[in-house]
Specification:
alpha/beta
């Protein structure tokens, strides 16, 4: 049987086990069990737990957990796949082009026992350019490609809102809070955020994570890129370079600043 992935669609919809979705902006009672599968292993929520919070809010997050690297948070566009020109979006799988070295990098993190979590802003959904089902299809296909190469993403978290509509759009911490609810051992002190924009770096720094900036294609960088480059703790040209650095400095990379 093909492995299923965990896909979280913040605020608007909850993905249900059989592929449908429902609005969970307010607390809802569900008739189906939520889709909550780790790659290759089912971890279905108890159907008796009928109330679900949507984690679309701001909350300060701090911790004093063990600072040994355990979780890597990844932005999507520009880190995992080739970014579209500014103002354009990846709307379907045929437009998704994984960057060189990405499957190898993720496989290396998997083998090292490091959790890999994708956190992505997808404002095009709120603009009606593509749907949450399109996002789910893209991630499902990407996961299949990764699995064929011995790699996997542990969870995807998606904010579909436009600016100022919620508190889950990076750099606000809603997506981190969702991840921590699903993986209670996640701690900012033992995590690294890797991204290619100012919102990614600010997201990590506000939570107390170490941050890595990916240089990417200079013709497709967002405004604020120079500030992101300066704020980040480290800078690399690709996810593979960043991963090799993390795995050789796993204990030191997240040491207190």
């Amino acid at each position: 049987q093909p492995s299923l992935l965990r896909l979280h669609l913040t605020h608007y919809q909850q993905v249900l086990r059989y592929g449908s979705a429902k609005d969970v902006c307010s607390i809802e009672t569900t008739e189906h069990r939520s889709l909550a599968f780790r790659t290759g292993l089912s971890n279905i929520q108890d159907p008796r737990h009928k109330h679900r919070h949507h984690y679309c809010y701001y909350s300060d997050v701090s911790d004093t957990a063990n600072s040994f690297l355990r979780t890597v948070f990844l932005d999507r566009d520009g880190v995992l796949n080739r970014k579209m020109p500014e103002g354009h979006y990846v709307t379907r799988w045929s437009e998704f082009e994984a960057l060189p070295g990405v499957p190898q990098a993720i496989a290396q993190l998997n083998r090292a026992g490091i959790r890999v979590v994708v956190v992505t802003n997808q404002r095009g959904v709120s603009q009606g350019l593509y749907s949450l089902d399109d996002v789910r299809s893209i991630h499902t296909a990407f996961q299949s490609d990764l699995q064929a190469q011995g790699a996997h993403i542990d969870a995807f978290y998606v904010c579909p809102h436009s600016k100022s509509e919620c508190s889950c759009r990076k750099p606000l911490p809603g997506l981190f809070e969702q991840a921590r609810a699903d993986f209670p051992d996640i701690a900012a002190a033992s995590s690294v955020m890797i991204g290619d924009s100012l919102s990614d770096i600010e997201f990590g720094q506000r939570l107390g994570m170490r941050t890595i900036f990916i240089e990417g294609d200079p013709t497709r960088q967002k405004p604020g890129v120079e500030a992101a480059r300066q704020l980040a703790d480290q800078r690399f040209h690709s996810l593979l370079e960043a991963t090799e650095f993390l795995l050789t400095t796993r204990e030191d990379v997240i040491a207190p600043r």
